[in-house]
Design goal:
Layout: E1 3-8, H1 13-26, E2 30-34, E3 37-40, H2 46-58, E4 62-63, H3 67-85, H4 94-102, H5 106-117, H6 121-139, H7 144-150, H8 156-167, H9 171-186
Antiparallel strand pairs: 1-3, 1-4, 2-3
Helix pairs in contact: 1-2, 3-4, 3-5, 3-6, 6-8, 6-9
Pfam families: HTH_18
Protein name: AraC family transcriptional regulator
Domain HTH araC/xylS-type: 73-177
Length: 188
């Protein structure tokens, strides 16, 4: 019988590798490690759980104990995986996607998220999308139109307005500023 562990702040492929290494170091037998969760082959002893918590804390991760926290972390991980790590265009409404992946009513999940995180789930999704836009602007490989399409914005204008509301500057200003900073660092 397998047991599931939920881990907070595990948001990237390097995080998965780091957790693999911790599990091997401690000698914990697992069957799967993915963003935010580990499937164990057997239940942890108290000593193993303490060791795991200590090692995870050193890396900025932590075990999540209660069901509400686990659900919220799962919601965040689904959003991050879809926005930052998927090779496909974001052609799905994230609120619908998260509800269907978790298998619970979205209204319940949204209410739970807001009660714990003090922002709405929609605000969280927007902030993650804008962080991805910033990353893509700095990479300087896609036009703003291509970025808007990739992240499922209805128009460049809508993306630009949302970006400016959050960052206080237009995407083009941000890109120009980021590229200037990069060039000045190159001269050092």
């Amino acid at each position: 019988m397998s047991h599931m562990l939920h881990i907070k702040n595990m948001v990237c492929p390097r995080c998965v590798t780091a957790v693999y290494n911790v599990l091997k170091k401690i000698g914990i037998d697992y069957s799967n490690v993915q963003l935010g969760q580990v499937t164990l082959k057997e239940e942890l002893t108290a000593k193993q759980e303490n060791q795991l918590q200590t090692e995870l804390n050193k890396l900025g991760f932590s075990l999540i104990g209660n069901r509400k926290s686990q659900l919220i972390e799962r919601m965040k991980n689904l959003v991050i995986e879809k926005i930052f790590h998927s090779r496909q265009e974001l052609n799905v409404k994230l609120t619908d996607y998260v509800g269907s992946e978790i298998g619970l009513d979205y209204k319940y999940l949204s209410s739970l998220f807001s009660s714990v995180e003090s922002i709405t789930f929609e605000q969280y999704v927007i902030s993650q999308k804008i962080e991805r836009v910033k990353e893509l602007l700095i990479y300087d490989e896609l036009s703003l139109k291509e970025i808007a399409h990739q992240l499922d914005y209805s128009s460049v204008a809508y993306l630009s307005n949302q970006f400016k509301k959050i960052n206080g500057m237009a995407p083009t200003q941000f890109k120009k500023s980021a590229l200037q900073n990069r060039k000045s660092l190159d001269n050092i």
